[in-house]
Amino acid sequence: MVSIPEYYEGKNVLLTGATGFMGKVLLEKLLRSCPNVKAVYVLVRHKVGQTPEARIEEITSGKLFDKLRDEQPDFKAKIIVITSDLTKPELDLSEPIKEELIECTNIIFHCAATVRFNETLRDAVQLNVIATQQLLFLAQRMKNLEVFVHVSTAFAYCNRKQIEEIVYPPPVDPKKLIDSLEWMDDGLVNDITPKLIGDRPNTYIYTKALAEYVVQQEGAKLNTAIIRPSIVGASWKDPFPGWIDNFNGPSGLFIAAGKGILRTMRASNNAVADLVPVDVVVNATLAAAWYSGVNRYNRPRKIMVYNCTTGGTNPFHWGEVGYHINLSYKINPLECAVGDPNFILQNNPLLRLYRIAVSRTTAFFHDLLLRLTGRKPWMMKTITRLHKAMTLLEYFTSNSWIWNTENMTMLMNQLHPEDKKTFNFDVRQLHWAEYMEDYCMGTKKYVLNEEMSGVPAARKHLNKLRNIRYGFNTVLVILIWRIFIARSQMARNIWYFVVSLCYKFLSYFRASSTMRY
What we know:
13 strands, about 55% helix
């Protein structure tokens, strides 16, 4: 078979979600690694105060496109921005634009979706299901379409413990749900949402499962493929290690832990943290389109589904995530931290409540100090938002799944030797300690825009905070002694017993050390 760059040569690509995290990485990788692609049509929604053209210009002028800008200074000429709204009929496209897309499109990458876990069911269905349906209707009319790639999520069927690379029956008929939502008012929709989503944790997961079924049904006559990434994180290698540009998903929690704001989170230390680097997902997506495209005349009857996960081949656990977060941010601390990184994943509800209570108390006094000095308080508000975000993530940090990845393995084995280097998605090669260090460094450099020259000052600030915490704990112990222990004979006896036990242990340890030398 032809190589991946050869396949994309002269092709017209239609991309949705280009302003999103994965979409912009896919756009950059496609243009840089397949330099002979003819054009990339990007469907972009008009944003208040910013035109679609301005949004794409802002993205392509950023750090992510630095390498591409050096290699192909005129790459922007291949990007054709089209104003579109996926939530509206016919994608809100003008007739001339629609006809142009019908005539020339060869490949579609559908990355657009709402990823908010607390989205209302009506909006989630509109953005994730109806928009997919509308795009498929347009795709059915395209004369030269070779492949339609839909980006889903590995958690679409998280109500199952073992997930195969197939499209499962939907929880409800999407058409019936869409028809029902037309006459239901918002109050009724919100009331029935918990019953509808059932054992799925949120509307995002629920509607992504429905969208897969829509792709299977409406795309039956098309050459389709579905990519299911798990928790998408910072880049592994491409275009450079640790690139990340948002607070979404785990990134915001990493930053909050590095700042010393987030101290605890409900999670099972032994649960698999199925993080997958964004460039792994993008490389697999481009490869999947290539494989389906070159085999379009001999395609299998069943839709090709790829579980793009790491837990089955290179497992990494949430306990290890917490360890590496603390280690990385202590070596290269964030500026203006409010405490030293001491992030603990806790599954014990009582201990977790205790640490939450301590963090809220600290936030209260922090905001009180800000008020007294004439500054705007922010800590309590941030803590409240973090705890809400953690509640939405607890389901994923407390459970593990088994994903079948046979199609991913097959796809990897089909690649040319050079393509295996350029479009690498073999997560067996991923070294988690290095990746987590790059990830944490990426949040510092690319999200918070902090310079490495500020690290020495940040370390001094962290040491100062640590000394303050030690001093505060000492005063707290003395107060507890004076108020509770000193007034009770039984408490004093217990205290003296514990102290004497510690003293004997230290004496034994010193004696053993002396004998060894």
